[in-house]
């Protein structure tokens, strides 16, 4: 941490809290929980319909794909990697825009009657955008894992019978589909909230 003494000398101290290590710097649990908390109605009450839209719908799509035996091919996997990489860069740019809007909004604190509503909306946008960036990174990682494990089948014994488990087909592909559908829905929500932010 940086401190400025009474004599104007800047001193830098490095503090280490007990129980914290390097992993705390990549812990994104607060971002995920913050994003989930934004799935609420205007009164702040958790919205069941939002949970259905952003979690149940992607789960159903992933389950259907698993049931019919769909498996990502190399072309689709490559396209999704590009999709994730491009949206990571774009969302980082939008994050800068949100920060700029927050700076401008602070100047209107005493004159804008919608200040509190806009501030809340900006905070929600921050969590939504950060969550989408993390989802894009996870999507790229899952596609990479799929390309590595594609074709790898392990024999799993269940009730005396041996069953071949294709990790890429029955585990990674449903996860990729869930992340893609959830990410697309979240991006639509971000666009709608950005539109509301810039037009009210």
Write a structural description.
By secondary structure, the protein is mostly helical. The protein has one domain. It is built from 5 helices and 4 strands; from the N terminus they run ββααααββα. It has helices at residues 29-37, 48-67, 74-106, 115-149, 167-199; strands at 2-4, 10-12, 153-158, 161-166. β1 and β2 (10-12) form a beta hairpin.
Give me a quick take on this structure.
With 200 residues, this protein is mainly α. It has helices spanning 29-37, 48-67, 74-106, 115-149, 167-199, and strands at residues 2-4, 10-12, 153-158, 161-166.
Q: End-to-end span in angstroms?
A: 39 Å
Q: Unreliable runs, pLDDT <50, ≥5 residues?
A: 1-19
Strand content: 5-15%
Largest sheet: 2 strands, antiparallel
User: What is the number of helices?
Assistant: 5
Structural class: mainly alpha
Provide the domain count: 1
Count every beta strand, where a strand is a DSSP E run of 2 or more residues.
4
**Average pLDDT across residues?**
83
- Rg value: 22 Å
Please outline the helices and strands.
Elements lengths: L1 E3 L5 E3 L16 H9 L10 H20 L6 H33 L8 H35 L3 E6 L2 E6 H33 L1
Antiparallel strand pairs: 1-2, 3-4
Helix pairs in contact: 1-4, 2-5, 3-4, 4-5
Any descriptors?
200 residues, mainly alpha, two-stranded antiparallel sheet
